[in-house]
Write a sequence for this structure.
């Protein structure tokens, strides 16, 4: 029996893609926290950032995490910045946290055409990603139960590797 599973990591790490596949394999519901916020507010994330600023969005994110981390039997993908608040990190630690660790090159490649990422709508997205990685990497590590490097394997192979790690985790919990 595994607790709820929460995926953390930077933009472009594959949290939604891996989360959907993992949920399917585990027979669980998948929830993307950012999509949940959009559904709750009826506004997309760039609009929320434009009208309420990053702080307003983060307030919405914390409220969403308070609701979603209470759900049993889910796989949830968080937004890249969810770990920025201590309250959010405490909420995430109530489940099993998988940190999908993507280097800046992988992030840049996967996000370069995505206009739905307000923090990257800048002259130098690489500098933004470098700064965010430096700031958030220790926070992702703090909450992580399992750390999985991304950017090398295909999603199905990554999920297979994660399932092996989850089986090891479940066995350790049972034995220990």
């Amino acid at each position: 029996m595994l607790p709820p599973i929460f995926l953390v990591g930077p933009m472009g790490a594959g949290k939604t893609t891996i989360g959907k596949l993992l949920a399917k394999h585990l027979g669980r519901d998948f929830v993307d926290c950012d999509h949940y916020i959009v559904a709750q507010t009826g506004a997309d994330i760039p609009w929320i950032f434009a009208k309420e600023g990053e702080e307003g969005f983060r307030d919405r994110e914390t409220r969403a995490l308070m609701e979603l981390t209470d759900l049993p039997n889910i796989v949830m993908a968080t937004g890249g910045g969810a770990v920025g608040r201590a309250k959010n990190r405490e909420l995430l630690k109530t489940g099993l946290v998988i940190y999908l660790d993507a280097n800046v090159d992988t992030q840049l490649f996967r996000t370069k055409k995505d206009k739905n990422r307000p923090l990257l709508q800048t002259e130098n997205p690489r500098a933004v990603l470098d700064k965010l990685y430096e700031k958030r990497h220790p926070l992702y590590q703090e909450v992580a139960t399992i750390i999985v490097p991304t950017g090398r394997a295909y999603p199905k192979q990554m999920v297979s590797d994660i399932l092996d790690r989850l089986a090891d985790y479940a066995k350790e919990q049972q034995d220990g």
Q: What stands out?
A: The CA atoms of residues 69 and 94 lie 7 Å apart. The helical segments are 15-26, 33-41, 45-68, 86-92, 104-111, 125-143, 155-175. The first strand starts at residue 5 and ends at 8. The two ends are 14 Å apart (CA to CA).
